[in-house]
Amino acid sequence: MNNNIYPNDINKFLIHPSNRKLIVSLRQTAYDTCRTKIGPQYIRMAFNKIKRGYYYTNDKDEVIGFCIWEEKNNLKKDDTYIKQLHILLICADYNDYKLGRKILFDVDSYCIDNKIPIITLEAANDVLVKYYQNGGFVLIDNDLKEMKKVIKIIKIERTLKTRKIKRGKLIPINLEEAII
């Protein structure tokens, strides 16, 4: 299922939490790959909350990264709800594909397709805060390193040749469509 922004040897798949065998495998990948930055208690909590996500494999069908999230409906002051995607965990092997950037792009695309205007996450450290800020997130709580991004991308263009992501004219998603 190559989607033309990855080299031919990387594939992206949607995670369904009902696939217990996959979830156990991804949890082990998180323990092995991310254990120096993220504690086992947090990893366990993240996998208990998972609703969806993406995982990425190489040409040997080995998992080289993943992102898991939960979707929430937050109550606004006017008693309406607005959709929000909260990233629980991003974990990727170090490689020359800049997989972290592609994961964030895929999450943006998922939000656009599902009319989810807000993405939140907690960065593990100050270095990651800067990384996420470069990806359009804003720090909203310095103590918790909580960050928020409002999706404003209407057109997305992906190119395989340069592996670059181009974004078109910026206009907000219609928030009325995101209110349930």
Chain-wise SSE layout:
Layout: E1 11-15, H1 20-34, H2 40-49, E2 52-57, E3 63-75, E4 81-92, H3 99-113, E5 118-122, H4 126-134, E6 138-141, E7 146-150, E8 156-158, E9 165-167, H5 175-178
Parallel strand pairs: 4-5
Antiparallel strand pairs: 1-2, 2-3, 3-4, 5-7, 6-7, 8-9
Helix pairs in contact: 1-2
Structural summary, described in words:
The protein is of the alpha+beta class. It has a single domain (11-178), classed as Gcn5-related N-acetyltransferase (GNAT) (Aminopeptidase), CATH 3.40.630.30. The protein has 5 helices and 9 strands. It has helices at residues 20-34, 40-49, 99-113, 126-134, 175-178; strands at 11-15, 52-57, 63-75, 81-92, 118-122, 138-141, 146-150, 156-158, 165-167. Helix 1 (20-34) runs antiparallel to helix 2. The longest helix is centred in the first third of the chain and has 15 residues, at 20-34. It is globular and about 50 Å long. 24% of the residues are buried. Mean pLDDT is 79; it is low at 153-165 and 168-172.
Sum up the structure in keywords.
180 residues; alpha+beta; Aminopeptidase; 7-stranded mixed sheet; 9 strands; 31% strand
The total of helices stands at 5
- What overall form do the CA principal axes indicate? globular
Radius of gyration: 16 Å
Strand percentage lies at: 25-35%
The largest beta-sheet arranges its strands as 1-2-3-4-5-7-6
Sketch the major β-sheet. Answer: 7 strands, mixed
